[in-house]
Amino acid sequence: MWRKIRAFFKRNRVIILSMMAVLFIIGIFVPLPLYAEKPGSAEDLANYIKVDDKKPKLNGEFMLTSVGIVPLNTVSLVFAAFDPTVDIQTKSQALGGSDSMADNARINQIYMKTSINEAKANAYKAAKIPYNRNFNGIYVMAIQPDSNFKNKLQVGDTIESVNHKKYDSAKAFQTKIRSQKIGTDLAVGYKRDGKVKETTAKTVALAGAKDMAGIGIILTDDVDVKSDRQVSADLGEIGGPSGGLMFSLEMYDALTSKDLARGRKIAGTGTIDKDGHVGEIGGIDKKVIAAHRAGVDIFLAPYVKPTDENLKYEENGKTNYQVAKETAKKYAPDMKVIPVETFDQAVEKLQN
């Protein structure tokens, strides 16, 4: 038996080796419709934020943690399958339901801009510095497949008016649109790449609310926050809403003489709204590991009370804080994980 196999291999050695080489090349260079979600990095926010056009000089570091999303090929899939810190995802999971990488990038840049502005608002308010919060309109984040605006609006457009009238909040826009009958023509004024445009189409029934009219989009506020004390942030291609809490703490410490960091490396994650509420995010286990690898002392995690009702809606049935604690116990036992519900609570716990 083995003689026959050896003889076959000897006769066809060139062909077999060539096939193996081709398969190896395919395994390296041909991507699969799969992605690896893995620990990213923990970056000192002082490298990305300026206060009064200067890099903040803090006694310590507030660090932004990230999750890495990388496409897989056959070879890297094998390695990912044996790495306990990596999750393998489909394209839809990795892109958060976006239709394309380009849409996903645009959405994450919108979330980043929004989180930076809401962080500014919280930092200014806590530092008792006057500021203005200007509402520009509503960002288009996604469009229903049956929307009559599907081929008219794009992800990233800012809707500025409805039937030639502007409003001062997303709620006011929604109230106006929902007051229309389903199938009514609606003129929508919007801005794309700095150019103002207008389009008209009929309203549709909203998903999950068949008796309510809408234009069939998922939206978020487009706001600018400005003050005489200038704060800016440029994170390049980094996107997403999850840096809001850490942005606000970095900005607050830089705007005041509080010395909130006190020589410590402080990482964390969580969205933030204009009222300072900290919201949950995805991939917190990867962010805890990234923070540990960067030598972080303290990790701030969004907190939601783990009631039976809340846990029904949590990923894998666990809150952000529960996952962060479990991950730290396994991979970073010396790192302190602190639960926070609001910006004010985060400041208080860091001071104490």
Write the layout of secondary structure elements.
Elements: H1 2-11, H2 13-29, E1 31-44, E2 49-51, E3 61-73, H3 74-81, E4 87-90, H4 91-94, H5 101-126, E5 132-143, E6 158-162, H6 170-178, E7 185-192, E8 195-202, E9 204-206, E10 209-214, E11 217-226, E12 231-233, H7 244-255, E13 265-268, E14 271-272, E15 278-279, H8 284-293, E16 298-302, H9 308-311, H10 320-331, E17 336-340, H11 343-351
Parallel strand pairs: 3-13, 13-16, 16-17
Antiparallel strand pairs: 1-3, 1-4, 2-12, 5-6, 5-11, 6-7, 7-8, 9-10, 14-15
Helix pairs in contact: 5-7, 8-10
Jot down its keywords:
single chain; 352 residues; alpha+beta; 6-stranded mixed beta sheet; 5-stranded antiparallel beta sheet; 11 helices; globular
Q: What does it look like?
A:
- It is a single chain.
- The chain has about 350 residues and is an alpha+beta fold.
- About 35% of the residues lie in helices and about 30% in strands.
- It has 11 helices and 17 strands.
- The strands form 5 sheets. It has a 6-stranded mixed sheet with strand order 4-1-3-13-16-17, with helices on both faces. A 5-stranded antiparallel sheet has the order 8-7-6-5-11. A two-stranded antiparallel ribbon has the order 2-12.
- α5 (about 100-125) runs parallel beside α7 and α8 (about 285-295) packs parallel to α10.
- The longest helix has 26 residues, at about 100-125.
- It is globular, with a radius of gyration of 25 Å.
